[in-house]
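hiii, so i know i said id send this last week but things got crazy w the move. better late than never?? heres the sequnce for the chain we talked about at the cafe, plus the structure i predicted for it. fair warning i was half asleep when i ran it
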Amino acid sequence: MCIDDDRELTVLNCLLDGMSIVAISQHMSFSERKVYSIKDNIVKRMKENAEIAKKTGIAG
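okay and structure toks below
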């Protein structure tokens, strides 16, 4: 699994549920900047994993 940090997983689930950055920051008691940072880390990690999968022929 590419997301193994509890905070990242919670932010990802909130985003997938349609919550805004403001709502997530209030829900988790983080600053909006922190939520954006966590979201950026998630996207970066997912992109890296997609590139690895493509190079190894795993991606379909």
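btw The chain has one domain: 7-52. thought thatd interest u
miss u guys!!
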